[in-house]
Amino acid sequence: MVRAAVPSDITTIATLHTAARATYYEGRIPVAEYASAEVLAHVRAGWVRSIARDDGGVLCAEHEGDVAGVAAFRVIEGDVTGDMTLTQFHVDPARWSRGIGSALHTAVVEAWRRSGVRRARLEVYEHNLRAQRFYAAHGWQPARDVVRAPDSAHLPMWREVPPAGESPGRPD
Question: What is the pLDDT of residue 69?
Answer without folding.
Answer: 96
